[in-house]
Amino acid sequence: MVALAKVAALALLVTVFRNEAWVSHLVQDIRTWRDFFLATQAGLVPYVHITKEYPVLGGALYWAMSPFVRAGNLGQTVLVHGLFMMAADLLNTVLFYRLARGIRPALALAATLLFAVNLTSLVMSPVRYEPWVTTFVLLGLAAHRSGRYDGATFWWAVGCGLKWYPAFFVAAQEYRLWRVEG
Question: Could you tell me if 89 and 25 are in contact, meaning their C-beta atoms sit under 8 angstroms apart?
Answer without folding.
Answer: no
